[in-house]
Amino acid sequence: MKPSYITLNFQQTAAQRFPARAGELNAAFEARLQALRSENAEASKEKQRHLENQILPGIAAYETLQTAMTKDEALETVHGYVEGKAWRLKKAFLKLMRIPGLYRIVPGIFARETPKLFGVTAGFAATDIQTSGGVWRIDMTKCPYHDACAQYGCPELCHCFCDSDDITYDGLHPKLCWHRTKTLGRGDDCCDFCLKIKGK
Fold first, then answer.
1. How many Cβ atoms are within 10 Å of 27's Cβ, its own excluded?
2. Above pLDDT 70, what percent of the chain?
3. Are the C-beta atoms of residues 113 and 93 closer than 8 Å to each other?
4. pLDDT reading at 1 higher than 90
5. What pLDDT does residue 170 have?
């Protein structure tokens, strides 16, 4: 199984900042990650994608880092991992947005792909507000990132993943508008996602 970018970043942090304890920290991280995997082994294939890529490594890294630094510093460190990934993704999207006229189909792509990648089988639930006419607007009412962070006593960790959405999708193109005022991870009743062509 290919390690998550969070796992690789954690290993780098352990080696650079705590070289004398790197072996101990990596072992503790791996043990916690395996325990989390065992506890979530019955999750669907679609949900496992989110669990393996970000959620479980994020929780394991956050908990393990707190044995070597303050809780706030641990949160900031994991946030840095997720933020770095978001900026790399945004860079790739910005290159694509140079294709003339591509921005026009982006809301439609979101409308088509969201149910596949962020659907009920993956642990999400959403209410469509508008998903046509150059507008993608949904209210996400259930999210496995929020649910898992709350379940394992670290709801504040979910903010990292919420923030990564804003980094990745805001400002992709002058004629695209990304808008969100609420997230489950920040204690609201939903994540009110909106990506639309300006003027729509």
1. 11
2. 100
3. no
4. no
5. 96
Q: pLDDT at position 174, please?
A: 95
| Confidence band of 128 (pLDDT split at 50, 70, 90) | very high
Residue 136 to residue 155: CA distance in whole angstroms: 27
Return the structure tokens found at 173: 């193109």
- CA–CA dist 39, 28 (Å, integer): 17
Q: Classify each residue of 74-107 as buried b or exposed e, where b means 16 or more C-beta atoms within 10 Å of its C-beta.
A: bbebbbebbeebbeeebeeeeeebeeeeebeebb
- Which residue type, as a one-letter code, is found at position 40? N
Question: Using CB atoms within 10 A of its CB, is residue 45 exposed (0-12), middle (13-18) or buried (19+)?
Answer: exposed
Whole-number Å distance between alpha carbons of 54 and 64: 15
